[in-house]
Amino acid sequence: MNTNDLDEIAEAVIGAAYEVSNTIGAGFLEKVYERSLAKELTLRGLNVTSQVAYAIVYKGCPVGEYYADLVVENQLLVELKCADCFSNEHVAQCINYLKASGLRLALLINFQKPRVEWKRIVYG
Fold it and tell me: Which pTM does this prediction carry?
């Protein structure tokens, strides 16, 4: 995986998130933003998968699953929130998703406010 490609994908996702925020505004449920962002990314020519399941395995036995909101180009995990602010729990959730998925970069995006907020989470 080329770091430049991953950075370009992240940049495209951030741009698309701003477009979604500018177009529909704040105040909707998280699922509305998930669907809107997936549509915007598809319109921009990116491969997007919603609600991607990752198994959590303990000593060879599956013990649970995590569902990532979006995975872009099979390389970038995107977790969406509608919250007053990012919390340590949101960051920890992204790190756990990265561990489970084997991916190394997540974008945590918050659509709660009039201006979208985002944070890069790197694992490994």
Answer: 0.92
